[in-house]
Amino acid sequence: MNETPEAVTPAEPVPPSTQQEHSIELAAPAAGLIYSAEAAPAPVLSHASLRIGYEPGVMPGKWFTRWHERYGRTAPLAEIPLREGAGLEALTTALSTPNSTSGEARFEPLAHMAIMRATAQETPDKDRYHSIRLYEEVPVVVLSKDHVLTVLDEVPLGEMAEEFLLHEPEEFPAWGEASQQWRQQNPRFLPQIPTHADAIELVAAGVGLYITPMSVARLHHRKDLTYRPVPDAEPYPVHLVWPRTPAAPTPDTVQGEKDDEFEVLIQDFIGIVRGRTASSNRGSETAQARRTRIAGERAKATAKSRAANARQEACHQKTAASRTGGTSRRKAAASSKPGRKGKRTGKRR
């Protein structure tokens, strides 16, 4: 399969209702990361409120569908098919340069978020990126349909001890250990393999076998090839990745509000991939809204506490008044009784 980027034609005029403040032309580096330029034209990318890239073989369709159903009218989503291994690069490559010389242009990445495989060559730095593990892909070995190992429903790494894999032994230590003697007796040169598609072509040519995610094997399906699961190989994790927000606050109030609104979009998509329902409002709250809500809750709590204190004080005053009144009444009653007469000194007769 030829994966050479297609030439990007100039963007067609966008209707006034959908045209942004500045017209854009897709930058060449960004165009080189897109699997198919026709699938993500510049007007669609510039109009989208949220741009999410995904690598070949991953399956984000259900999440994209839910977004379009819930937020499609108010926050359009651009689905960007990326080339293999371009997930992180899409987050740091500029979408375009606005055709404006006034003011400082704000950096706009090709993708705001990326759905990608975490591999040894492409692992997100935790200090720079947020990452959510979405699911794991089953590893399979791609081989010709007439290969002897096709009699097995699953092919453990040990069964490939006398097979040439299009991998370094370090990638699959169990296979490296089991095949060490065979490889010493049958030394072979491992060719450079830029992409999964190139590896599949080498398998078809009879050069060796190739272990890859099942989704990739299906994506590059050929009539003369098949695949079998490899039960003792590590699964391939698929992550949702996006850049961390800079620690320094934005001095521009207007831009700060835009950042809050954009953070809402990020949290809404996270809610979708985590299975939150449309009725859930978690994540759909800006920072300013959160501050307002918290301040209101604190004010209510303070008012409630003051009211409780006032009631308690009134109760204490009433109790004190009741006690004071009772003592006064007892004193008054005592003073109203006739006093005792003095002692008689005379004898009774």
Automatic annotation (TrEMBL):
Cellular component annotations (GO), alphabetically ordered: protein-DNA complex
Biased composition (Polar residues): 277-289
Bias kind Low complexity: ranges: 1-11, 302-311
Protein name per its UniProtKB record: LysR substrate binding domain protein
Keyword terms: DNA-binding, Transcription, Transcription regulation
Pfam families according to UniProt: LysR_substrate
Gene Ontology MF: a single term: DNA binding
Record PANTHER family: HCA OPERON TRANSCRIPTIONAL ACTIVATOR HCAR, TRANSCRIPTIONAL DUAL REGULATOR HCAR-RELATED
Species of the source: Rothia aeria F0184
Feature: compositional bias, Basic residues: 328-349
